[in-house]
Write a structure and sequence with these properties.
Blueprint (H helix, E strand, L loop, with lengths): L20 H7 L40 H14 L6 E5 L2 H12 L5 E5 L6 H10 L3 E5 L4 H6 L5 E5 L11 H10 L3 E5 L17 E5 L13 E5 L2 H14 L5 H11 L2 H20 L6 E3 L9 H7 L6 E5 L3 H10 L4 E2 L9 E4 L12 E5 L5 H17 L1
Parallel strand pairs: 2-3, 2-4, 4-5, 5-6, 10-11
Antiparallel strand pairs: 1-7, 6-7, 8-9, 9-12, 11-12
Length: 391
């Protein structure tokens, strides 16, 4: 897996099989235990390595090509994305670097690519870049018959499920099967679900891509991304793109993200509990016209999500009457912080329309549930709502 040999000091041992997801998360990517050695080696801070002989025989050559700290993280992610299976994982300097690596290395002039029109807002500019390079871009909703129809003649189908920020869900198995029959590859942005909530490779996707900046790291102190896939043939063009562009993670960032994996199962479980509690609370507010969370039984995506997701994520979206009400509520919150991004231990929220790239109402709010006490979060939102009502 991912740029090392099995006899290096950083070769990992998998947790005993079968193992629960918590056990895997705690032990993923760690080396064999040795007397008096740290359980997790520190970051390898170097730009080059001692390199005698033929570089082809070397596990590490230069800092742009590989680093033992990346290797440990990539192994760990592979053990979460596809437990017990042989996968290739490539770490990147950010989620957008990972997304761009797949799209720009796999879509060529004349190819057709399918992108969601309700996904992450930088997919729009990225689609424009692909068009400028001679590709044909089809933008379709995450949920609906247009997606299945759009796969015909495509070289790559890019899925984002649940979508960000609207939280629509598509049937991954159904879309993957249709895309593969049509000869298309399938990549899934799994950022919101995390590999503990959904495993796209198990559901047939060719690539699972995510921003490690979000829940994977979870502490709001790292920019990171990754691509997971099966087999060197799928990984090779993505790896080449990473090298040519130099979109590589720093060793410290990779180490911090690996460190954070040990609590991933605890964090995503608590975040889901809080997200569901907040979604239920918001569902009863007269000021909220729409609340979306795949874990809500009333949510239009719940049935499909329940078939393919183990957990429903930390993000809740809801629509308030207008821009002013939303801004007053967010400004009055004391625990819920006004910030972009999601997946962190602290609860954050923002009026998503302020960025201008999402087709959402002015009062649309994306909230990311953290790991605080749900009762405190509900109380904070209630007092913020009361303040917003007063104007």
């Amino acid at each position: 897996m991912s740029g090392t040999t099995e006899d290096t000091p950083y070769a990992a041992t998998r947790a005993p099989q079968p193992a629960g997801e918590g056990t895997r998360a705690v032990h993923a990517g760690l080396p064999e235990s040795e007397p008096y050695a740290p359980p997790m080696p520190g970051p390898v801070l170097t730009s080059h390595f001692h390199l005698p002989g033929d570089p082809a025989d070397a596990p590490y050559t230069y800092g742009r090509d590989g680093n033992p700290t990346w290797t440990a993280l990539e192994r760990a992610i592979g053990e979460l994305e596809a437990p017990g299976e042989d996968v290739e994982v490539l770490a990147f300097s950010s989620g957008m670097a990972a997304i761009s690596a797949v799209l720009l290395s796999r879509v060529h002039p004349g190819d057709t690519v399918v992108l969601p029109d309700d996904g992450y807002n930088l997919l729009g500019p990225l689609g424009e870049q692909l068009t400028a390079q001679g590709a044909h871009v089809r933008r379709v909703p995450t949920h609906g018959p247009e997606l299945l129809a759009a796969v015909e003649g495509a070289a790559l189908v890019w899925l984002e499920t649940p979508s960000n920020p609207g939280l629509d869900v598509c049937d991954l198995r159904e879309v993957v099967e249709a895309a593969h029959r049509a000869g298309a590859l399938v990549a899934v942005d799994n950022t919101l679900a995390t590999p503990l909530g959904q495993r796209p490779l198990e559901l047939g996707a060719d690539y699972s891509v995510a921003s490690g900046t979000k829940a994977l790291n979870g502490h709001g102190d790292v920019l990171l991304g990754y691509v997971a896939c099966r087999g060197g043939e799928l990984a090779a063009p993505v790896r080449r793109w990473r090298k040519l562009v130099g979109a590589v993670p720093g060793p410290m960032e990779a180490w911090l993200a690996h460190r954070s994996l040990a609590t991933l199962h605890l964090r995503v479980a608590r975040q889901q509990e809080n997200a569901l509690a907040l979604a239920r609370e918001l569902h009863d507010w007269p000021e909220v016209s729409v609340v979306r969370y795949p874990g809500l039984p009333e949510d239009p995506s719940h049935e499909v999500a329940a078939r393919q997701m183990r957990r429903y994520g930390c993000v809740v979206s809801f629509t308030l009457p207008d821009l002013g009400f939303a801004e007053r509520l967010l400004g009055a919150a004391r625990i819920v912080e006004s910030a972009t991004s999601f997946g962190g231990v602290r609860t954050t929220a923002e009026r998503r329309g302020r960025w201008g790239g999402d087709d959402v109402p002015d009062g649309f709010v994306r909230l990311s549930a953290g790991v605080e006490d749900a009762a405190d979060l509900i109380a904070d939102l209630r007092q913020a709502r009361d303040s917003a009502r007063e104007g």
